[in-house]
Design a protein that fits this description.
With 315 residues, this protein is α/β, with parallel strands linked by helices. The chain folds into 2 domains: 36 residues, no CATH class; 224 residues, Rossmann fold (3-Layer(aba) Sandwich). The strands form 3 sheets. The chain has a 6-stranded mixed β-sheet, with helices on both faces. A two-stranded antiparallel sheet has the order 1-2. Strands 8-9 form a two-stranded antiparallel sheet. Strand 3, helix 4 and strand 4 form a beta-alpha-beta unit. Helix 1 packs across helix 5, helix 4 runs antiparallel to helix 5 and helix 6 packs parallel to helix 7. It is elongated and about 90 Å long. It starts with 11 loop residues before the first helix and ends with a helix.
């Protein structure tokens, strides 16, 4: 008879780490709920509505009813005209796709890009749950690292926030196109997908962007895709601190730059800005909304502005 193994003893360090994680998740839950209650109440529901109509029942036809709703089968069976009644399919599925590649851990301010993504995801998840929608999660690097199927409830949101903050990916690179392929395989009903990434595509840049656009175009036909870019101010400007070595977090490639040279700093800023603007323009050209959140800056007004603009566009 095989005896179960005794549980390994939990060290003080493990207990401290668990307490830290739980405390961080709870603090973020309180903060995201406050943001939803104070700023986003009603806006989410007015933008993301039901995606269809569910059959409810039939009733006798009365003058003035739309003849296109006549149920001919029931009419033939009863000998009296009947019409079909429908109700709006209110429940939506929201899928949060979060980039957890190595570059997401970078942050030159208090929080990292990943922490910014976790807070934004928490607000979106809380908004969806308040509206009785389901929320799922995909964490990805250059492979799909974690998938949590859509669900509801406070504990579900807590789990989504916890995993987004603390999940340890097995890989370092980024492959957004592969993550979109996965989403198309597991999500069959038309859903709202928030794709959260720094969109650092690496080299060869043009080839990777072209592949990403092709996958985005396919996904946006099936679902409603909203791209959310999370960036850090240090990625677009270098401090004047002399010679420094910059390491690509995903590839490990190291480049030495002389930041004391104003031309070097200007060229770096120009190239970073141009690549970011080009990526945003190419994604928007597909009809995909593209939001930009910057680490250390207020991002909630950007989200509220998006809700307002989309509500106006959809009438």
């Amino acid at each position: 008879m095989i005896q179960p193994k005794a549980n390994s003893p939990i060290s003080l360090a493990d207990e401290a780490r668990a307490a830290e994680i739980l405390g961080r998740v709870r603090r973020m839950e309180v903060r995201t709920n406050r943001l939803v209650d104070d700023a986003l109440a009603g806006r989410y529901a007015s933008v993301f509505k039901g995606r269809g109509m569910d059959f409810d029942r039939v009733r006798n036809y009365v003058p003035g009813d739309d003849v296109r709703t006549i149920d001919w089968n029931v009419t033939a069976r009863t000998g009296e005209p009947h019409i079909k009644l429908f109700t709006e399919e209110r429940e939506l599925t929201i899928l949060l796709m979060i980039d957890v590649s190595a570059s997401a851990d970078f942050g030159s301010v208090e929080d990292s890009k990943r922490e910014l993504a976790a807070e934004a995801a928490g607000v979106l998840a809380a908004s969806a749950i308040q509206n009785r929608d389901k929320v799922g999660l995909v964490l990805f690097s250059d492979a799909v690292e974690l998938y949590i199927p859509p669900g509801k409830g406070r504990m579900h949101i807590m789990r989504l926030i916890r995993e987004t903050l603390f999940f340890q990916p097995g890989r370092r690179g980024t492959d957004i196109a592969k993550a979109l392929d996965f989403a198309n395989q597991v999500v069959h009903r038309k859903s709202v997908i928030f794709l959260v990434s720094d969109f650092c595509l690496g080299a060869p840049f043009e080839e990777r962007l072209s592949r990403l656009r092709a996958k985005l175009q396919i996904t946006n036909r099936r679902h409603d895709v909203i791209a959310v870019s999370v960036t850090d101010p240090r990625e677009e400007s270098l401090p004047d601190v002399g010679r420094i070595c910059i390491e690509d977090a995903e590839t490990g490639q190291v480049v030495e730059l002389d930041t004391a040279n104003a031309k070097v700093r200007t060229a770096y800023a120009r190239q970073s800005r141009q690549r970011r603007e080009f990526t945003a323009a190419r994604i928007r050209s597909l009809g995909v909304d593209f939001l930009e959140f910057t680490n250390g800056e207020k991002w909630l007004p950007v989200l509220m502005g998006f809700f307002q603009n989309r509500r106006q566009r959809t009438g």
